[in-house]
Amino acid sequence: MHIQLLYFDGCPSHTAALERLHRVLAELGLDLPVQVIAVETDAAAQQWQFLGSPTIRINGHDIDALPAATPYALACRAYRHPDGRITPLPSIDLIRTALQHALELSHLRAAEGSPDGPIDGSLVSGDTISGN
Fold it and tell me: Chain-wide mean pLDDT for the chain?
């Protein structure tokens, strides 16, 4: 499973988002690395298709997909609670649901013999990749 947290340093919520992500991984008994990516320029925002900070992707999929017309930019991101309130962080439930869904897909692919099936821990937590 390939997990990324993309962030813009101008938005302070990425640290708490990473803590939530690690907490849910631990709750689910998953010892998987998280690739942490600092998006530092407008060009990098375009390259990474960055929808705002923090963004969590699992196997390349945003855990809270936004409309296709959403612009890529160095910006803070807003998430919605089920009751409509806005928050700068993805909820624990949103993260958990996304991880569980990815696990289910991983198990299905493994059963089908797909190379993307088994959980793969090939990235190192704390990696920072900057776009130029």
Answer: 85
Pairing of the two strands 3-7 and 35-38: parallel
- Kindly report whether the global pTM for this prediction surpasses the value 0.90: no
Q: Give residues with Cβ within 8 angstroms of 18, minimum separation 6.
A: 5, 34, 36, 54
Q: In this predicted model, what pLDDT tens digit does every residue of 59-108 receive, in sequence order?
A: 999 999 888 889 999 999 999 988 899 999 999 999 999 999 999 887 76
Neighbours of 87 (CB within 10 A): 12
Q: Are the C-beta atoms of residues 117 and 104 closer than 8 Å to each other?
A: no
Enter the DSSP assignment of 123. S
CA distance 83 to 126: 33
How far apart are the two ends of the chain, measured CA to CA in Å? 27
Give dist(CA 122, CA 2) in Å, integer.
Answer: 8
**Domains identified in the chain and CATH numbers:** 3-112 (3.40.30)
Q: What is the mean pLDDT of residues 100-120?
A: 69
Which of 117, 89, 122 minimizes the C-alpha distance to 103? Answer: 117
Tell me how far apart the alpha carbons of residues 3 and 61 are, in angstroms, rounded to a whole number.
9
Contact yes or no for 51/14 (Cβ under 8 A) = no
